[in-house]
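Write out the 3D structure for:
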Amino acid sequence: MNRTLIVMVKEPRPGRVKTRLGRDIGMVAAAWWFRHQVRSLLRQVTRPHWQTVLAVAPDVAGMNSRVWPAHLPRWPQGGGNLGDRMARMLRSAPPGPVCVIGADIPGITAAHVNDAFRALGRNDAVFGPAPDGGFWLIGLKNNQAIPPTIFKDVRWSTQHALADSIASLPDYRIAKTAILRDVDTAADLPLRK
């Protein structure tokens, strides 16, 4: 069975990526951080046990970018809010288990991704919660029958995003995996050792 990991990325251009972080540390520094964070994340999660795909935005610039590794397949995210774009990526994956993650999760490892895929053996969906009420991962066991209600009425960028997303999947057996922090502001940045 094919397993697909989709990583949501944006072109690391100042003022167009990590703008909340940019308000704290400057837009150029935020874009630089994101570019290097994605590079590190891809080293951690790209494994032969699943196909890693980059979901890129903006569509044209992302598809033609020389910033991201050329050997990884790229799919354009398309328009709409975050839920619209994630649902489109989930539906675009080949048949089999699929997980979508953000690219701004410094603590992620291949073991976290493997745990999520393993949870899909017994469940219809899996979420990786974030401490702020959002989530860093969503996975579906069968992406060929995604309900049209997925991500309907989710209050994005609030403490309700995870609960609303779970509610959008009625009758699904849902697992939760490790709690990991994403980076939205300077307070979320990992401390250097």
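The chain has one domain: 4-187.
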